[in-house]
Design goal:
173 residues; alpha/beta; four-stranded parallel sheet; two-stranded antiparallel sheet; 6 strands; 16% strand
Length: 173
């Protein structure tokens, strides 16, 4: 199938793949600790690198979804997700949303990414996995996007669970 005919699966890193808000003593099962220095990390110049927890099983699950979806990074890591995150999960280089402005103003109380997600999707069906999605984002997308959507808010203390991978698989079917 032509990739342009498949729905998009827009993937955030921090929260869904890296449950950064979990207490250090309660790292979720299956996650390994990685120390990283992406250029976007505000503490990159400091002596202490960014701690990132990743679960290699997520790479396998995302690759299974890639049979149905076009996978796209929708993260502030932008292309650096291909250098720091993807290889540790066994993912190939993925396209990414190059945010015109990060953490800027957003319409009608929505998350700042939402307006850019719609622009990137360009009318295509999409599923979006992020820890900052709210009811306002769902309403905004429902009113402005002509195709089907699935917006999944992931708890940043837990990260993605097996059920979270089932939802986009069932939705796309």
């Amino acid at each position: 199938m032509n990739p342009r005919h498949r729905p998009l699966l827009l993937i955030d890193v921090d929260g869904p793949l890296n449950p950064y808000a979990a207490k250090p003593q309660s790292r979720p099962e299956g996650y390994g600790t990685h120390r990283m220095r992406p250029t976007g990390w505000t503490g990159a110049e400091s002596a202490k690198p960014l701690r990132v927890w990743l679960n290699p099983d997520h790479g396998t699950a995302l690759l299974a979804l890639a049979e149905t979806y076009e996978l796209v990074w929708a993260t502030t890591w932008k292309d650096e997700a291909n250098d720091w995150i993807g290889p540790r999960l066994g993912l190939p280089r993925l396209p990414y949303i190059d945010w015109p402005q990060m953490h800027g103003r957003a319409p009608r109380g929505t998350f700042w990414k939402t307006q850019y997600v719609l622009k990137y999707a360009g009318g295509r069906p999409f599923a979006w996995i992020d820890d900052d999605i709210t009811a306002m984002d769902r309403e905004y997308v429902d009113q402005r996007h002509p195709a089907r959507t699935l917006l999944m808010r992931i708890d940043e203390r837990i990260g993605l669970t097996p059920a979270d991978f089932d939802a986009p698989a069932h939705w796309a079917a």
